[in-house]
Amino acid sequence: MALEVVARADAPIPLHVSFRAEPGELLALVGHSGSGKTTLLRTIAGLWRPQSARVSVDGEVWLDTAAGINLAPHRRHAGLVFQNYALFPHMTAAQNVMAAMDRRTPNLRDEAERLLALVNLPGLADRKPGQLSGGQQQRVAVARALARRPQVLLLDEPFSAVDRATRERLHDEIIALRAHLKMPVVLVTHDMNEAQLLADRMVVIERGGVVREGTTAEVMTDPVALRTMGIREVAANLPAVIVEQEDDGLTRLQASAGPLFLPRVEAPVGTRLTIRIPAQDVILSRTRPEGLSALNVLPATVTAVRLGEGPGAIIQLRAGEDLLLARITRRSALALELAPGVACFAILKTVAVAQTNVGVAR
């Protein structure tokens, strides 16, 4: 049930984009405001038609301008979640979900309650949107999108209207929900932290064209792509597993490059985690350091060096099977003679790592 999109247009913005999303995969479309992200989502849903485009899902053609095919939105099996929820205010949560269902669906009410429970809203089926929080309304919108039994799920800035704490809870729930989703999911977001947390792959769009496409790890550790997106607070996500709870209050984790120590992580041994490591908290050394208080020292190899226009530099590293980024000064990069293939050591402060986002891996 792969989604394939090719779109070209001159207006309202120039577009020259192609991408593919696989079944069960979450693909994030990221880029500056006005780059064409939402226009692409609207193209998939049938709400906008470029001058030249082709959209197919699992081999079924939804749009092919060259062949004169353009299925109406209601004939495209797409679930769409808007940033403003777009719920019917006079209907209950269950009624909003049932409104999206095929009338031939048996036991409509039971199916609506099942979907509401799937998005963590059990017992709230009879509440109207005005009686729900912003986060709860967003969950109803997701349940309604799933009620269409979509072949592809489209999320347009779905968490931008809620506060940060609610947004983080919704992120966790989307991660949990993905275990039940078999269709491609396309997320449009301007929040790079959100994209990095949720997406398997990313497509970076700038002025209507694809700048970079790849796995989330590849894109978010690509200095050129990061510069294009204007990202300053760069970071890498490092997968690890808890192997021991130490007696002195530290938790020992194992990453592909070696052990990591964090202040106590309240999770059982064997739990797989994703640790977000800001580039500014990584120190590099050409030799293994001795006599340091830092406990986390990982052997690494430089894979790319990007010297900034100012005094800074971004160094991409491979540590074990994973990628890291270090933000250091240009002077340090030159003094250490860092270049692709150079072996070094990445030093991570235990406290700095603890202050980053630590979440259960997908």
CATH superfamily of the largest domain: P-loop containing nucleotide triphosphate hydrolases
Mean pLDDT across residues: 88
Using the alpha-carbon principal axes, give the shape.
globular
Fraction in helix: 10-25%
Strands of the largest sheet, in order across it? 7-8-9-3-10-11
Distance between the termini: 21 Å
What is the quaternary state of this protein?
single chain
Q: Output the structural class.
A: alpha+beta
Q: Could you walk me through the main structural features you see in this protein, from its secondary elements to its overall organization?
A:
The protein is α+β, with helices and mostly antiparallel strands and 362 residues long. It has 2 domains: 3-229, 3-Layer(aba) Sandwich (Rossmann fold), CATH 3.40.50.300; 235-360, OB fold (Dihydrolipoamide Acetyltransferase, E2P), CATH 2.40.50.100. It is 23% helix and 36% strand. It has helices at residues 37-45, 93-98, 108-118, 134-147, 164-177, 192-198, 216-220, 223-229, 330-335, 350-354; strands at 3-9, 15-21, 26-30, 52-57, 60-64, 69-70, 78-81, 152-156, 185-188, 201-206, 209-215, 235-245, 250-255, 258-263, 272-278, 282-285, 296-307, 312-319, 322-329, 343-348, 358-360. The strands form 4 sheets. Strands 7-8-9-3-10-11 form a 6-stranded mixed sheet, sandwiched between helices. A 5-stranded antiparallel sheet has the order 2-1-4-5-6, with helices on one face. Helix 3 packs across helix 4. The chain is globular and about 70 Å long. The model has no long low-confidence stretch (mean pLDDT 88).
